[in-house]
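Minutes, methods subgroup
Present: GH (chair), OT, SY

1. OT presented the first of two proteins processed in the latest run. Sequence and structure tokens recorded below as shown on screen.
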Amino acid sequence: MTHLLCRNKLIDFAAWKAKFDAHVPVQREAGLRLERMWRSVEDPNEVFLLFEVRDIARALGYIDAPESEAAERASGVIDVELHFIEDSGQGARDQGSA
């Protein structure tokens, strides 16, 4: 299964989150489903998002659309890093005790 790992640097988490939540139907239309969201311990205005990707072509079309870039700016995103990733086939392993 393919996923999209996204890191966003934000001006204000609360303002961004409200706009992000309102944008869920558009993400789903693009074949993206949010699985997890994390905030940086060092910087609460840095978030990491993990999306399930149902269709890479649709997801790329959404990401590359001028409307998406405008929506990011309007919501307070100041930097983005995106990575399409796949399961390596290596499940979680017990690392033993330290």
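2. SY then presented the second protein from the same run.
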Amino acid sequence: MRRFVDISVPLQAGIASDPPGHLPEIDYYDHKQTAAEVVSFFPGATVDDLPDREGWAIERVRISTHNGTHLDAPYHYASTMDGGKRAITIDEVPLEWCLQPAVKLDFRHFPDGYVVTAADVEQELTRIGHTLSPLEIVLVNTSAGTRYGQPDYVGTGCGMGRDATLYLLQRGCGSPVSTPGAGTRRSPTPRSATQWTTTRRSSGKDTAPVAPSATPTSRSCTTWSRCPPTGSRCPASR
């Protein structure tokens, strides 16, 4: 039987979901608060004309393209890729990259700040008995999902290192997906800042061309544990 697993998280204000200064902001308005605004759209109408004197419940949302469960385009990480070519933007990411068979790598046992290596990826693929195929989406399950919304969320979990990212790209896997992210840590911490600066261009101009030429990543997902290691199909978000 087919089973759907929602890997997205709801946008929510007031929790630790992103680095400081990049949190979503949401203003909530109930039916009473918007009644006067609603009748202003209809000349001659008054609040008394509204059913139960109620307007519309709405939210006004201020977000960046990095909030919530999302797809990062190569342009997010750097202005160039593939030996100096212009990095593609989100509207240029091929749709066929975004709905493909998926494989899940379980890296929850790695400590916070650990940088995953190509050897780690190979070992996990051997453990689950899987051989990567071109365009396959790789889900990287870290421990960050268990801390979503908590003060230590941003710094929780491991990250995919440069050689691990290239290992996937060189096998045609165009959309490594993880929590908190593939190719970089969510944010550099004191113990991982050096690794972060050397991995942020892992599909960019300081590497030999690989195919596919870019690594979009879907982030802020908390339900990887519900996905099987193999046999699923994964749509990238947004």
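Chair's summary of item 2: The CA atoms of residues 118 and 164 lie 4 Å apart.
Next meeting: continue with the remaining queue.
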